[in-house]
Amino acid sequence: DGGITQSPKYLFRKEGQNVTLSCEQNLNHDAMYWYRQDPGQGLRLIYYSQIVNDFQKGDIAEGYSVSREKKESFPLTVTSAQKNPTAFYLCASSGRVELQETQYFGPGTRLLVL
Amino acid sequence: AQTVTQSQPEMSVQEAETVTLSCTYDTSESNYYLFWYKQPPSRQMILVIRQEAYKQQNATENRFSVNFQKAAKSFSLKISDSQLGDTAMYFCAFMKSLAGGTSYGKLTFGQGTILTVHP
Description:
The complex is a heterodimer of chains A (114) and B (119). Chain A is an all-beta fold and 114 residues long. Chain A contains no helices and 11 strands. Chain A has strands at 4-7, 10-13, 19-25, 31-37, 43-51, 54-57, 64-66, 76-78, 87-94, 104-105, 109-113. In chain A, β4 and β5 form a beta hairpin. The model of chain A has no long low-confidence stretch (mean pLDDT 90). Chain B is globular, with a radius of gyration of 14 Å. In chain B, β7 (60-61) and β8 form a beta hairpin. Chain A binds chain B through residues 29-31, 33, 35, 40-45, 48, 50, 58, 88, 90, 92, 94-96, 99-105, 107-108, and chain B through 4, 33, 35, 37, 42-47, 50, 91, 93, 95, 97-98, 101-107, 109-112.
């Protein structure tokens, strides 16, 4: 089945630790995105990537890093510099076919700080 | 910068009835897209409906339709024959159109409206 997968579903981070959230898509989409959702709020863009080996900062990139070595994969690292990382993280992708502007989302990862 | 406002934090409706969720946005762009996404308790974001700003005709998808008023910068969602499975948080989102066929677009989301459908 075509879709977007995120892992793990839940992730716990200790103080000072870097953690990496996985996002994979088999939709052959060019663009991929990472959003953060805090309780009772909308989504805010962290990073996005239009093509392999290229990515841009979104509105709240501080304390996060990404890579895009493969078209299918766009992992997000939450670094120790992110002082308030507890949130729900959503990955999305969009492609060059009909409805190319439409973003489709993965199931999300909930990150909690111990 | 674009902003999206959803003025109804919570709404409720009886099963089989109709409900309308409000959304207004502020932009200086003339070409853009508007979306409604649904986030049920599972937290999966699901696309409900999509509207291109250059189209005057309102988008419809089965029981879901929009009332797009470009001059007023309003984009409301109407859900007809509400079902228990419609219970979710609904987000309105804005995306500026890009030239050149690129597939990238930044989504700006509203704060969401929690919709509860009662049996």
